[in-house]
TrEMBL record:
The gene is ttuE. This is Pyruvate kinase. Pathway: Carbohydrate degradation; glycolysis; pyruvate from D-glyceraldehyde 3-phosphate: step 5/5. The keyword Transferase applies. The keyword Cytoplasm does not apply.
């Protein structure tokens, strides 16, 4: 669907937005990708949302992408006799394998992998970092710690071990069941939580078997340490700033966001910036000025998409959140693309040369006829500021193109013959006019890309006028 902006919006579905009417309203106001959060809901509720999305897509004739976000390996403490206890800074506190209910001095930690990996001097963070404990002693049954801050610890709170690579499978039994379900329903993207290394993606890809693209969620320090190899292995990344800001000092997150975006663009991988973008709109009809600046900053840095989480899933103002995010993106792009000039290398690639040609001839769009997600991502990652018309004969790729910056996706039963330039150019012109992207007198730059799903090669380009 051709919108008046190029950065995409991902919105999470939940109790506030799970209905056919609401999904249609959100899509028409700006949502490009719907996220299904498998930390919540049931397979039945997710299936209902998938069916509503696909039915809407058919009725409008426009692509809508679906992202299934897996819960991942959650580490939690056990339960307490009194549901919660007060911990004082400086006191001794023990985490152990004993299943007995906890008290003010200890609690169960039913994760043997933590005992195997933790070291003296490590920090354990509980309840999104609200409580911190320094490890003083560890064996295979017990971790003795000193509380670094005072606070309340209660039943089943989450636990983080930020400085340590944990030897855990990327897919839990729940994740495997959710993944198999999502793939059976033909979702377009699978988001993997708590990725630590490229091998996590390799393992998940074996189970997915090419049926969906993988989005690696970057939310652990180990993922940042292994960023280059993760980018080579994955199809895209999500900067999950919530958990990343728990496991790292919060002041480190903004420069990391910039670094990740820069590296992902260099590897031609799409990026979703996520978490607390319009957090106050869960309960307020307008965002804070800081939140507006946060969304705009992501646009200035060239993200492919920004994401709404609780704002659209369980908030009081899901419609308003989508509308204001759409307006923030539009206004930021008017600023950033007013004097856009994509820097070229000494020997420009075909995508770089196509963008330069588009600037010189004031072309309205760049068109790519291709079944390759990676090929179109190469053009998109250069953030040209010019809409990209991507024409494909693969229905899965048709949906997946929707996540990419600046890309308007169109499906054909059969691609035109690249050996017949006249047919090729005429078809592109007709489709671009039909989509409202050009008029008969506008210039169009056509990039000849591979029609193979597993190839990201280009063979040439031309101008249609």
């Amino acid at each position: 669907m051709h919108r008046n902006r190029q950065t995409k919006i991902v919105a999470t579905l939940g109790p506030a937005s799970s209905s056919a009417d609401m999904i249609q309203w959100l899509f028409e106001r700006g949502v490009d990708v719907f996220r299904l959060n498998f930390s919540h809901g049931t397979h039945e509720s997710h299936e209902n949302n998938i069916n509503w999305i696909r039915k809407l897509e058919q009725s409008l004739g426009k692509p809508i992408a679906i992202l299934a976000d897996l819960q991942g390996p959650k580490l939690r403490v056990g339960k307490f006799e009194t549901s919660e206890v007060n911990v004082k800074a400086g006191q001794q506190f023990q985490f152990d394998m004993d299943a007995a209910l906890g008290d003010s001095t200890r609690v169960q930690l039913p994760h043997p992998e933590i005992f195997a990996a933790a070291k003296q001097g490590d920090e354990l963070l509980v309840d999104d970092g609200k409580l911190a404990f320094r490890v003083d002693f560890v064996d295979n049954q017990c971790i003795k710690t000193t509380a670094l801050v005072s606070g309340i610890i209660s039943n089943n709170k989450g636990l983080n071990l930020p400085s340590t690579h944990l030897p855990i499978d990327i897919l839990t039994d729940k994740d495997k069941a959710d993944l198999d379900f999502a793939v059976s329903k033909n979702v377009d993207f699978i988001a993997l939580s708590f990725v630590q290394a490229a091998d996590d993606i390799v393992q998940a890809r074996k189970r997915i078997q090419g049926n969906a693209k993988i989005i690696a969620k970057l939310e652990k320090p180990q993922a940042i340490q292994n960023l280059t190899t993760i980018l080579k292995a994955t199809d895209g990344v999500m900067i999950a700033r919530g958990d990343l800001g728990v496991e790292l000092p919060p002041e480190q997150v903004p420069p990391l966001q910039r670094r990740i975006l820069r590296e992902a663009q260099r590897h031609n991988k799409p990026v979703i910036v996520a978490t607390q973008m319009l957090e106050s709109m869960i309960h307020a009809p307008k965002p804070t000025r800081a939140e507006v600046s946060d969304v705009a900053t992501a646009v200035y840095l060239g993200t492919d998409a920004v994401m709404l989480s609780a704002e659209s899933a369980s908030g009081d103002y899901p419609k308003e959140a989508v509308e204001i995010m759409d307006r923030i993106i539009f206004n930021a792009e008017q600023d950033v693309f007013s004097n856009k000039n994509t820097p070229l290398t000494e020997t420009p690639s075909i995508p770089e040369a196509a963008i330069l040609l588009a600037y010189r001839h004031k072309a309205r769009i760049i068109a790519a006829v291709s079944n390759s997600f990676e090929a179109v991502a190469k053009i998109s990652s250069l953030t040209p500021g010019i809409p990209i018309l991507a024409i494909t004969s693969d229905i899965k790729i048709y949906h997946q193109f929707t996540l990419l910056f600046g890309v308007c996706s169109v499906y054909l039963d059969k691609l035109p013959d690249a050996n017949n330039p006249t047919e090729y150019k005429n078809l592109v012109q007709r489709i671009a006019e039909r989509e409202g992207m050009v008029t008969r007198t506008d210039h169009v730059i056509v990039v000849l890309a591979s029609d193979r799903i597993d190839s990201a090669e280009f063979s040439g380009m031309s101008i249609v006028s």
